[in-house]
Amino acid sequence: MPNSMDDFNIDGTPKRALTAATIGFFFGAAAVALLSPAATRFQSAMDLSTTQTGFLVSAPVLLGSLLRIPFGAWCDKNGGRKPFLILLGLSIIGMAGFTTLLVLYYPDRMDASLYPAFFVFAALSGCGIGVFSVGVSQTSFWYPNDEQGFALGVYGGVGNIAPGIFTFLIPILFATFGFTGSYIAWFGLLLVGVAAYYVLSADAWYFQLQRQGLDEAVARERAREAGQEIFPEGTPLEGLIKSAKIWKTWALVGGYFFTFGGFLALVTWLPTYYQQYLGVGAQTAGGLVGVFTIFGSLIRVPAGSIADNIGGEETAAISMGIVLAGSLLLAFIQSVPLAFFGTLVVGAGMGINNAALFQKVPEEIPEAVSGASGWIGGLGAFGGFVLPPIFGTIVELMGPVGYARGFLLYGLLAAIGLGSVYTLYRSDSRVETEESQPVGS
Prior knowledge:
By secondary structure, the chain is mainly alpha-helical. The chain has one domain (about 10-210, about 235-430): Growth Hormone, Chain: A (Up-down Bundle), CATH 1.20.1250. Helices cover about 80% and strands about 0% of the residues. It has helices at about 15-30, 40-45, 50-80, 80-105, 115-125, 130-140, 150-160, 160-175, 180-200, 205-210, 215-225, 235-245, 245-275, 280-300, 300-310, 310-330, 335-365, 370-380, 385-400, 400-405, 410-435. Helix 1 (about 15-30) runs parallel beside helix 7 (about 150-160), helix 3 (about 50-80) runs parallel beside helix 5 and helix 16 runs antiparallel to helix 17 (about 335-365). It is globular. The model is unreliable at about 430-440 (pLDDT under 50).
């Protein structure tokens, strides 16, 4: 029997695996910005209501969010590369169908009868968003416990800047290549990104060793000697069931629904908010939303390291207070500079909290990291689909002022999030106190 890692054909390193996952997530997450910069064009071409438009622009978040649950858990069986590629493949199918519809029907032949087809292909194109929970597990398996915040901060932060970059670029592409040509160009970029992930990615050592015939226990021992600290426990279904029975999973789901789902919702909704409420041009709105998205994403990188140092609960509590302050400002102003500042405040708070929450997953639920990541990433991101139609309904009920008052919903969710963070903190403090007491006391 081989005695060391040198006796096996092992591929990959933690840095390379992190690079691959980040590239894959970057191109998968870009689908969030697929429709939002062009929302008014689709609304006009198909004669849609504000609520229907809200559903359409958030469609890419729908399927990709829900698929995070089973695909994230599936990582416990194979390490992540296979589910990652399947999700990106589904995104390619969706983007191909969406682009074909535009080529065939836009603008003169588009009407409301095409709405279901556009919705379905837009939803499929968003399957790439589902790679997030897969990449969280894949990255967690590669990195030691004391570097989880950093690694996941880089992965989530850099990957999440894609919607911001494309929100900014798409209006420019519209002017350069035309409306349909811009989506053809994006389809080509998606193919390039998927190819890059395919070439660079590799599953963690434990999974590679198992595929080369090692017994589970031996593979675990060899991988641990090489530096791997986090391993799957049981089957994917067992991981989902086990994590679902742990109340902390649902506390983290709630927080992520608000901050990451809410973040995705703003990426899709803010272009409409700027154009319809504040009278900003499409290209300027794209730039403002792009800065918001990039800033809110990149702040996850230092936030992950901060969470490693001061604790996830403390970091999350600070972030919720920041979101609450920004939401209250946005709810009562009608000024482009102040609105831009307010969105940056909200984006900062959301980005910090996103990093803090996933820093807590391996710590709070080490026995079912993949299953918990699936629930948190999937149901959390689902907020990106749920919230834009609610904003649209608020506008229909209240008129233009509803664009601003809708941000009170974020203030309410931030307050609820503070309660969840406090509950987690109290629970951990109680456990530490009990463990520190002498036996028999």
